[in-house]
Amino acid sequence: MRVTQGAFSFLPDLTDPQIRAQVEYCLRNNWAVSVEYTDDIHPRNTYWEMFGMPMFDLRDAAGVMAEIHACRQRHPKHYIRVNAFDSTLGWETVRLSFLVNRPQQEPGFRLRRTESHGRVQRYEIEPYATEQPAGSRY
Amino acid sequence: MNEPAGKPDGAVGEQEVLALLAELDRDLIGLAPVKRRIRDVAALLVVDSARRAQALPVAAPGLHMCFTGNPGTGKTTVALKMASILHRLGYVRKGHLVAVTRDDLVGQYIGHTAPKTREVLKRAMGGVLFIDEAYYLYRPENERDYGQEAIEILLQVMENQREDLVVILAGYKDRMARFFECNPGFSSRIAHHIDFPDYSPEELEKIAELMLERMGYRLDDGAHTAFAQYLQARMKQPNFANARSVRNALDRARLRHASRLFGGIAGADRETLSTISAADILASRVLQAAQSEGATSNE
Fold this sequence. Notes:
The complex is a heterodimer. Chain A has helices at 16-28, 62-74, and strands spanning 32-38, 49-50, 79-86, 93-101, 109-115, 121-127. By secondary structure, chain A is α+β, with helices and mostly antiparallel strands. In chain A, the strands form 2 sheets. Chain A has a 4-stranded antiparallel beta sheet. The longest helix of chain A is centred in the N-terminal third of the chain and has 13 residues, at 16-28. The longest helix of chain B is centred in the first third of the chain and has 22 residues, at 32-53. By secondary structure, chain B is α/β, with parallel strands linked by helices. Chain B contains 13 helices and 7 strands. In chain B, strands 2-3-4-1-5 form a 5-stranded parallel beta sheet, sandwiched between helices. In chain B, α6 (147-160) links the parallel β3 and β4 (166-171). Chain A binds chain B through residues 16-17, 20-21, 24, 52-53, 55, 57-64, 66-67, and chain B through 1-2, 93-94, 96, 115, 119, 121-123, 125-127, 161, 164-165.
């Protein structure tokens, strides 16, 4: 099952020139771009691992592209996303976040139903991949 | 977007390049070797775009440069200009300049240097990285110095990402020569070694005029002669730093000019406020050579 998280995720995967164009757009807006990766794709997993520090004061996308390539090489089977942080007063948040890498096989999510008190039923989803220990998923 | 280092359409007008060179001629006094090299680079660009139009192969030229010369010969000034020149010629995408020294590249403990250098390199991408006094990067007397690590990363990026950034090193000639002796790989990766000559007295006078014009001052006739005298005396002294000494001299002349007017400022018109007279310059300690003491430290 194809994971759809972040911007552009219902589109076909972005090509490198397209990623570059998006990053250029972020830098034009003075957003700080960072690269993150994870192999736990649960939708509530907000905090991914940072790949290096966020990049401030960049003027050209070449530096970010180099980081993305380095991250893909190190973690070819992980989800990798690019975040753009806007530090303007009143925003101070991530303005754009999109995936730039995903594993070949995406097994999807299990839906668990749990009986709770009374006749209440609770639902829970869990990525199949997280049954494996971190690092050996996908 | 994902444009190559050259302009996307490959069309570079000879006219605009000539206009750029003319502008350079106007803004920079002297510095013939520098201008000649910029002219060569610009010519190559025009030729390249003509070649592209004829479907001939075009290779991106190496543009890393090394500026050597005595103090005050305009190394930093030219480096600042170079970023915008290369941008207008279409060799770099963004045309900003990141000026760094050893402190910005070399870390303080193990594992600190590489990320620090990489961060600076990333910031400089699409523009020009200017490393002032580059020889401080390498400290032969300390074999555990982290400078070597910075040099290695620098070399790697200079080689592999030539279309992403241009590196300009600057420093005094003898020390740069020693630096390159210890790091032969560096020297060979730099395509342009440009030596900045000392200025002649006439050039220095022209520089002074240009500086004053920008500050909104002018010399009157007497001041012109006085300043020529001053330059002659100053050039004989130690620690003469070419254009920098000229700038300092002018700053001091402005101070004297100001204190001359001070007190009667109500009656000063536009002319008086902007004219430096001979007295302002002749009062210099350099010219009162008899009591020359203190003049050397008066840099």
